Amino acid sequence: MNFSLKDLIKENLKLFEGRREDAQAKYTDVPERIFNIFVEEDPSGNYKYLDWIMKIWQQEMCSYSSSYRCGNVSVAENMMSNISYFNENPHKYEIKDINDFTSFIHFTNSTKEAKLKLTKGELKKQATKHYETGRYLIIEPHSHASSCFYGSGTQWCTTSRDFSDHFNNYYKTNSLLYFINKKTGKKRAFLTQLGRPMFGPTRWPDDLNWLYVGDKEYANYGGQIFTETDNMGRSFRGIPMDAREAMQEAHKEKTKKWVKNLDDEERKYKLMKGLGMNDELPQVTVINSWNDANGSNRVPDTIVEITNSFVVVDNDSFGNVKIVGDLHLGCVGAGLSHCVNKVDSVQTINDSLTIMGPDVDLGSLTGHIPLIKIKSDASISRWGGITSVGELQTSSMYENFMESIKDISIDNLIFSQEASEKLIKQWIKKIPAKNVEVRRWMG
Questions:
Q1: Where are the domains of the chain?
Q2: Model-level pTM?
């Protein structure tokens, strides 16, 4: 009898559907949603693993003592992930037939061991060599298996063969680099949080030089160094300068990739600025805070609102900001010689304005300001378009202060003791009396 290709396909489809129907009929304790996961994620294309996993699931997960686990979707999906690995890598398993595994734990442990058996090609893909000489090697593992391979002989948690979570958790948010002496077998691991400088003193994250490498700054490494016996140390003894620079460059490149996926737009912007990624800066319009005193310099023109604190110590730092929560105008330099003296973009302040410098022109501000604080020796030369103030606090009593506020509606005017004394002295000069005396207590 001759069969066409179309007939063979029909017969195979009947066979596959038969496996599916038989498995569902035999193992009735398995919930339908779990059964559907096994069917939809079967990697064989012909349901050849279905009978085994349904049988094991019913025996181990749906028994009376463990029935609460019978509908566990995450465990089912994890099992199918391991079966997919088995289907793609049977050469790494001592047992070749899925039906010869006696339990989930038997199969899971075998899969863990299989994943640690890396070929040369897999090792090349799962780790990066950042530096190598006849004596030294700096390697960055990208998988738990490669970490175990290159970190063999150590007691580091990232090289534990039975537990991959430590490596996976560290790898997501840190640079993990292994420095290996190929002659002696000695190893050190360098763990540095992404977004922090690997070497050098702590700097603000938006400083353009935050990843600076200097000959005298390696002693200030901010991460953690582990020896093969897990004893932490901070010694760079025996590590050549060019090897240290290779580690720093590897950390910087991983940080560049990581920072692009940050959800915090403010942190993302500042870190990318610090890494020199100016062509890829996000178009942020609203940002939480900005501190010009920390070296951030001019706010980008794309930012029009700073919801909380905005500290300014330079007239050129305002950018295109129109709305601010708290605006703090300060002074820097020897003897506070460099001060902000003009506000020329901010129009609205939602919370408070603090003035720390003399002769400040508030030209672009308009409308109502809830709170203004004038600190000692500070002054306002021009109030701009401000029409009302909820509360005005002043520690300074400069000339013509009272005259300057006569057209502004102020709910609460509060003077410090020093400012009050200066104000009284000004008034006293206008009193037509030969002798005027002010006493703390009246008798």
A1: 5-115, 121-259, 283-428
A2: 0.58
